[in-house]
Design a protein that fits this description.
5-stranded parallel beta sheet, 283 residues, 58% helix, 14 helices, alpha/beta, single chain
């Protein structure tokens, strides 16, 4: 995803004096501009709509509408939580938050299904099943995904470990990684540095890396052998893990269904032990 504010900063020296005044207002008030019409913006900065249109043309956009959509997307995905919330509130009909939230998740799932090909999923399964060791890593909003994956894959295969990248001292694990190991890193905006650093260490040691992230502009992509892009928008301030949890759940289910010779015996043994220690509640 292009960063319209960064493009504006990088090109400001090439703008006319009037365009610079517009650019200065946009950079100082991005949340307001994200929802102002071109006429409203022109009135606010005391210039013409033609000046604003020429400004957006000079940045490579087809017009103000495309620039504004890019700005809205940037604020929703990459801004600090309070800015995301402020941005979403400007575009939110709170008459039925429950339905708005559900619709947003339906859209996230649909977008994710469209972005991830069957070929990519099959490649992910092959990477998982052939790995000697698997490390699922994430923090914050991506952590439920890593936890679900590590539990499910370890229950099936017995070689998966959860690494909470901003709490665990993963350096000891990182230096032992080899080309036979797999790291599954999950991160969404604003991307956690420690998660990316773990992916870098894995890549440098020859390990395979699968990234579950929001887009191909994610910093994880450069260090990944495979990217599974998942939409993570919410109607509030946070990254939603719902669509990426679907991907994680699919990987677990597909491993169990497609490779029963590797999983059934282990599941039987675990269930036998759980039964012996009366682990589950019964009347």
């Amino acid at each position: 995803m292009e960063n319209p504010l960064l493009k504006l900063k990088n090109n400001i020296s090439q703008l006319t004096e009037t365009q610079r005044r517009v650019a200065d207002y946009i950079l100082k008030n991005p949340v307001d501009v994200a929802f102002l019409t071109v006429d409203q913006l022109a009135l606010t900065v005391k210039t013409s709509t033609t000046t604003i249109m020429r400004l957006t043309f000079s940045l490579g956009y087809s017009g103000y509408t495309e620039f504004q959509k890019g700005l809205q997307e940037l604020l929703r995905n990459n801004a600090a939580p309070q800015i995301r919330l402020e941005t979403n509130l400007k575009d939110l009909d709170d008459s039925n938050l429950w339905m708005r939230c559900a619709e947003n998740q339906f859209n996230n799932i649909q977008s994710t299904v469209e972005m991830i090909s069957t070929e990519s999923l099959n490649t992910a399964l092959e990477m998982i099943i052939s790995a000697d060791r698997i490390f699922c890593t994430s923090v914050r909003s991506g952590l439920p995904v890593a936890q679900h994956l590590s539990f499910g894959l370890n229950r099936l295969l017995g070689n998966c470990e959860l690494i909470v990248s901003d709490l665990s001292d993963w350096v000891d694990k990182g230096i032992t990684l080899t080309s036979k190991d797999l790291v599954i890193a999950t991160s969404f905006p604003r991307y956690a540095r420690r998660t990316v650093e773990f992916a870098i260490a894995a890549k440098n040691n020859g390990a395979q890396v699968i990234s579950i992230t929001d887009s191909y502009s994610s910093p994880l992509v450069e260090y990944s052998n495979l990217v599974l892009p998942c939409s993570s928008t919410s109607i509030a301030f946070h990254n939603s893990p719902v669509a990426s949890m679907l991907v994680a759940d699919y990987l677990i289910s597909a491993i169990a269904i497609n490779y029963p010779e590797k999983t059934k015996d282990r599941l039987d043994k675990i269930n036998s032990i759980l039964t012996q220690i009366n682990y589950h509640y019964t009347d």
